[in-house]
Every structure is written in structure tokens, then in C-alpha cells.
Amino acid sequence: MTEEQILEAKIAILYFIEEACGYRHSLHWLRRWMESGQQSDLEHLIIEIGRENFYDFKRLIQATQGDNDARWEMMSILTQRGIIVPDEWKPVREEEGSLLEQDIVLTSAPEAMIHSMQFGEQDFNTAIGNTWNVFNWIQENKKNYPELDPIGILAYAMEKLYNSQSNVYEVCYFIRMLLGKGTLIENTINEDLELFAKNVGNYFADQEWVTKNLMLAIQNGPEENWKDALSRNQVKSKIWLLDKLESTGWFTQKPTVTKENPTMVLVGGWVGLLPFIAAVRNQKLGAVINVDIDESTHLPAKVLNGQHYTEFRNLAKDVRTLDFNKFKNFVIVDTIVEHFENHSEWIQSLPAGTKLILQGNDMFDVPDHVNCHHNLDEFVDTCGLAKVIWQGELTMPGCTRFMVIGTT
User: Fold this and answer.
1) Per the domain annotation, does 218 fall within a domain?
2) Is 405 helix (H, G, I), strand (E, B) or coil?
3) pLDDT at 259
4) What is the pLDDT of residues 101-143, one digit of tens each?
């Protein structure tokens, strides 16, 4: 994947997470910064990360703005906590053929060590004692890690803090030396998608698998339009559908010896977002058949959903060519009515009593939309259902979504 694709994928994942899993201040500001690249958004992200780790990073922001007292205060915090050695300073070690990945953390330093670096604020005799404190700190760490240069690492931290006055991005390296790689700030330094998924997943203890699955699906379908697939409107409209589906009881009735739970036949399901959101919500659907004539969508759809359903399969056919008389106990979910000409004729060709959920919209300006509607009544009238169980509309930015639930 290109850098542009990776960045777009991260932003898309963050939009999905915010809508489907929950809002987190840090994730919000990470997305804002990724979209804008603005210093103010990065500063908001830094402050939120500080709060999560019980630090007042407003002082760190002041350090980036040239406040000398704030600089020394942050250096004091860093040395007392114990400096996490940057990767570029670590020697390459091998153990049983693999590189060691654990953090190297320098021991905490006495408060006097930082004061010793401010010679103008102490008498000469005090400076001598404090300088020996620096020496002892270096010797202690050289004993633990003889291949490292503690004073060089200290100077590196000071340099990053100082350089952040002209480029606030530099302070992200300082934060890494203070907090390690486990925070979101790492995603301003490292573009790796897997690390991003892990860091974001940490915000949802019982749903860390969500970002992992999304990341794997994106890696298996990098050319898909994930920006659209995971957009707010896509997620909101599908959550709306799943809420109304649950009220029908079609998938919540207990199966019997002669009757299994219905199979969802998903029309033009693309990357399988609807059943995936159901899994995120712990909403049971039974088996799922994702009917999409575009086979390039099949692998990412399978990656997203395969582990959550006893049967999830893709079908590369035009749904209008399927003989539904061969299906048993099924529900058709068609969220792309706007893409089908003569849609009502197909609906009326289905077996009597077929259960359907249909969604359309009023987005006439989209070239691929050949079957849009001006309002809900028009949409329902042209769907061709014999019995309407529920109908409604959802107003979203840029469009109105229409939905009807019923049977033929």
C-alpha cells in the first residue's frame, strides 16, 4: 500500500470506530490531525494523551512555544521517570535468531542532575556535587547497558524538545521517550498500519479485534474505496437498518428442529460492512450470503466476517438471476435500490411472502444512481411490496435515506 492509501485507511477506520464502537477524545484528535496536518490539532492530541497518562501536557505545549522553565520541568519529569531509549539508539542484538523488541529504559535520575545543567542558578560548589550526580547516573546506566551512551540520549531528548519550537512534530519523539510506543502519539511517527490498529484497539478492551479485522480487510483489498465504505453515512444507515431489523424478531426467534434461523441474502454487500457491524454490536444474524458481482470485494468481505458467522459466503452473481424458490427461510437485505433499474419488477418476481429490507436515497447527482426517489412515499410505492411492516427515513449530511421493511 502507498503512504496515501495507508493514511486514507487510518482515517476511514477512525470514522468507523467513532460511529460503531464509541467516541474517544484522543481518537477524535488523531483523526483531525491526520486530515488537516494542523499544529493546533496535534496539540489537542498531545494534551489528551497527557491526560490519559496523568500528565499535564499543557506544560509540554508551552515548552514547544519556547518557555524555558517548562522545558526544564519536562526534562525533570523525563529523567525521573526513566528515559525510554529511542529505537535509533538501540544496538542491534540477536537472540535465538530474532531481534529483541522490548524497551530499554534508563534508570531514573536524581533531581539534582537536572539542576546541575542549569549552572547559572547555583553556586560553584553545588555545581560540582551535581556534576558528580550526572557522572554517577551515566556510570549506572553504562553498567546496565555498556553499549549505550546515556549522555547522548539525554542530549537527544533535549534537542527534540528544543527543536519543537520551530517544528512541534519533533515533540512527538520526546513523548515517545517518556511514554513508550503504546500511545497514539506513535502514529504521528510511525505509519505502520498494524501498529495503528493495535494502538486504536487498546481503547476498546473487549473489541480490540474490530480494528484488527478492519486492518486485515484493507490489506487484502487495498484498492477498495474504504473512505466511502467506512464513512459516517454508511455506518449510520447500517446501524439504523440493524436496529429496525432487530425489532422484527426475524433473526432472534429460537430455531427449531424443522426451522433454522433465517439466512441473510445481502444484495450488493460490497465489503460486507452490514454483517460486520452486526458482529461489532453482538447482534446475531445466522448465515450470510454476500451477493456482489464484483469479485474483488469478496476477499476483504470474507476477512471481515468469516470468523463471526458459522456460514459466510460470497456469491458473484446478479441477484436478479437467482432462483429464490431454491432458498429456505431467508431474508433479503438490499441497501442499494438506487443502483437498480426496474427494481420493483424484480421484487414482484420473488416468491410470495419473501421477507425484505430495502434502502434507497435521494442522491440523484451520483452517476451510478439510476433509481433514486424524491421522498419516502415515492420510494415505498415503487418498491412493489405486498405488505409493509415498517417504513421511515433518515436525514444525513448530503442526502436522505429511505427504508422499508415488508414482504412480497
Assistant:
1) no
2) strand
3) 59
4) 578 899 998 877 777 776 555 677 777 787 888 889 999 999 9
Amino acid symbol at 166: S
Q: What is the dihedral of CA 33, 39, 43, 46, to 10 degrees?
A: 60
Task: Give 97's Cβ-side CA count (13 Å radius).
Answer: 0
Residues 173, 236 within the same domain: no
Greater pLDDT, 89 or 226: 226
CB 360 within 8 A of CB 345: no
Residue 197 lies in a domain: no
Residue 206 lies in a domain: no
65 and 162 part of one domain: yes
User: What ranges in 221-363 are assigned the alpha helix state H?
Assistant: 226-229, 232-248, 273-280, 298-305, 343-348
* 18 & 132 share domain: yes
Q: Are 283 and 372 contained in the same domain? A: yes
Q: Does the pLDDT value for residue 95 go beyond 70?
A: no
Domain that holds residue 91: 3-192
| Sequence letter at residue 106 | L
Report the chain's terminal Cα–Cα distance, integer Å: 45
How buried is residue 361: exposed, middle or buried, by Cβ count under 10 Å (0-12/13-18/19+)? buried
CB-based burial of residue 264 (10 Å sphere; 0-12 exposed, 13-18 middle, 19+ buried)?
Answer: buried
Number of domains within the chain = 2
The answer to whether residue 202 is domain-embedded is no
Dump pLDDT digits (tens) for 154-175.
999 999 999 999 999 999 999 9
The predicted model gives 207-234 an average pLDDT of 94
Say if residues 261 and 286 touch (Cβ distance below 8 Å): yes
* DSSP conformational letter for 333: E
Pick from 233, 236, 271, 229: nearest CA to 363: 233
Q: What is the pLDDT of residue 42?
A: 96
| pLDDT score for 146 | 87
Across residues 371-383, what is the average pLDDT?
94
Helix 25-36 and helix 39-52, axial crossing angle in degrees, nearest 10: 160
Same domain, 247 and 176: no
pLDDT of residue 120: 57
Residue 48 vs residues 29, 44, 58, 197, 370: alpha-carbon distances, Å: 8, 6, 10, 19, 46
